[in-house]
Amino acid sequence: MIPASDKERTLASWHMNRALREGVQASILPDGIELTDTQTGFAVELRSGDVPAMTSPGPDGDRLWSKLSLMGLAKPAADLKEVRRRQRGALRRSEPPLLDRLRDLMARIRREIPFFCERAASYDPRRLASLEDFQGLPYLRKQDLRANFPNGLIPTSTDLRAGLDDGSLTILATSGSTDERLQIVTRSIIDRLPFGSDDLFGVPIGGKQPRTAFFTTPVCASMVCRRAAGTFEERRSSISPDLYLRTTNDPFAIETPILKSFCEDVERFQPSILAADPLYLQCVVRAAKRDGIKLPTIPVIQRGFEFATRKAIADIREAFAAPVFNDYGASEENRIAIECHLGSLHVRADVVYFEIIDQSGPCQPGIPGAVAITTFDTVTPLVRYLIGDVAAWTGRTCSCAFSDWPTIDYHGRSKDLVRSRGRWVTAAEIDDAVGTPDWLDFYRLSQTSSASFEIEVVPAAGESPEVGELSTRLKHLIEPDKVRYRPVSRIDPLPSMKIGTVQTRLPTCEIP
């Protein structure tokens, strides 16, 4: 171990002779030195054995300094976009190949997690000679999480009570949009956004987790439920830069005080991101038009929590004059995929392994299938977990800074599949057909029997429903004589308090 005084002289030498880039801070650790880029959030640790090479000229020092330059930490300074590109490359190079990551995960869970210990033979990393071998592992299902909550699916070394008491762990519950709610143990603090999200969104974010305001249903998560009715101070998170905005039990009758509170809180908090249920936020837009209230300016809006219609996205984008990006996640893992400024929905390959499957196996691009995720860094490991969603690979490579992450089209929930014309039809297919007619604000399609559908339609203010047009838009998916249209002024929320665009009373399939 090198004395602290020698490390301090090393830091001074770097700044005087070769100079770290402005914004890069060095701090002394017990067994080395950590360099942190305060402008991007990137950090690297140098061990004590590397320190002497930096104090005097020579090949070893030159090589180490060259590595720091490749990480964007040294002068001459590049622009921040280039710095982030270099640092993303360094992070990517530091990760093992995907197959090795999966093997490491298998080795860890069969050693530490009771559920997987009991099934160790099925999760033997020596059986993974290829990714095709991984497809032979069993699926994890929601009933497995329910049956083994809480201790069966967390490490035996985890003191759950202590983690809950000190706030490092929390128990999240799903919204109830599935038949039964389930609970899961998670870390209280995670990095919701990937490194370098400035380049993902095309707007400045900075090196810290951005200030985020949440506007969603009153029962989406236990944390939101407790805080949504409190004062401004009570609704601020004590462990993250977040604010939970007041919500409503009746999104189609948002009262003026709730609307004013929304605007005032956003103006006061000045979030970089508004994370919102898109249909609830569309109701805010309707209420603002009704009351003649100007909505606040927000740099970025991320939509999540439930399926977003094309009309909702268009209305929100126009009303807030802000980009609206998809943030696809779930209570079990809220970092599944994220939309970039070019409109591509990228799988979060840094934290999940993502599969799309149907009855015959992995789906080809363009074919919707069930989503199975495997998580790399969660307290509750998920391995080939059927999360209850439907998606399709696009088969396209995006040209944004995150082009190495594959892209998908999100199709909605498996439970919202309807059966028509001899096949399963997804919420996204229905919404693509409905489109964005000027007269329509909201709709909900319900399948009541194998040959009977009902569509509730909420017209825009001052508009009349054009049922014939809607029937024409949908006829390639659903036979017109099987559909009953019902104009309404509101759509009653589901038991989960989500609004929903598609539902069925018939059994659906787990894997299409």
UniProtKB/TrEMBL annotation:
Domain of life: Bacteria
Gene3D superfamilies xrefs: N-terminal domain of ligase-like (3.40.50.12780)
Signal sequence, renumbered to the chain: none
InterPro entries: ANL_N_sf (IPR042099), CapK_Type1_Caps_Biosynth (IPR053158)
PANTHER family linked: CAPSULAR POLYSACCHARIDE BIOSYNTHESIS PROTEIN
The protein's name in its UniProt record: AMP-dependent synthetase/ligase domain-containing protein
Organism from which the protein derives: Mesorhizobium temperatum
